[in-house]
Amino acid sequence: MMWSRARWTHEWQQLRSVDLRDLDVKEAGGWPLLLKWLCGVLALLVALLLMEWWVIGERRAALDSAQQQESRLLSDYRRQAGEAAQLPKIREQIATLQDQMTRLRAILPTDAEIPSLLDSISDAAVDNRLTIETVRLRPTVSRTHYVEQPLDIQVRGDFHQIARFAADIASLSRLVTQHDFTLAPADSSGDTLRLSLLARTYREREDTP
C-alpha cells in the first residue's frame, strides 16, 4: 500500500510530537504508525543480534575450532608424508650402518683374544728385529657401548724397523689404534731409537645388545 505525501507528512508529524517519556507499552496500539514500525524494526534487530550471539556465534566458534583442527591435521599429514617419502632412504642408511657395525664387530677382539693379540704385537716386534722392553696391559676403561683396553708398548731399534713395526700393528686383523708416540735416542750413538706408545684395542660390552 502506497502512502501519499500528505499521509507521510501527517505520520511524521505525529511521530515528532510523541513524548517518549509518556509512552506506555500497554497503550502501544494507539501509538503512531511510524513509531510502531520503528519499534518493530528495532525488535527485529534485537532478535537478529540475539540469534547471532546465541546460535550463529556458537556455530562460528565450532567452525573456528574445526578449521584449526583441520589445519593441525593437514600439517601432521604433510609432515608424515615427508617422513614417509624419506623412509626408503632412512632404511638404506640404517642398513648401511648395520653393515658397518657388523664389519666393525668382526675386527674387535673378544676378551679371550686379548692374550693372542699381545702375542701378535710381540711377534711383529721380533719380525722387525726390535728389542722389546715393554708390552703390557693397562686396566680396562668401560665406555658407554664398548670396553677400551690400553696397552703400553716400548721397543728399541732403528727408524726403519720402528716404522715397519708401527705399520704391522696398524694392519693386524684386530683393531688396534696407536697414540702418544714418543721417539727418542736409546743410546749415545743415536743409531738406536726407543719408541714408546700407548695402543688401544676395543671389545664390546657384555651388556650391549
Automatic annotation (TrEMBL):
Alphabetized UniProt keyword annotations: Membrane, Transmembrane, Transmembrane helix
Domain of life the protein comes from: Bacteria
Parts of the chain that traverse the membrane: 34-56
Pfam families, per database record: PilO
PANTHER family cross-referenced by the UniProt entry: FIMBRIAL ASSEMBLY PROTEIN PILO-LIKE PROTEIN-RELATED, TYPE IV PILUS INNER MEMBRANE COMPONENT PILO
Protein name as annotated: Type 4a pilus biogenesis protein PilO
Organism: Vreelandella gomseomensis
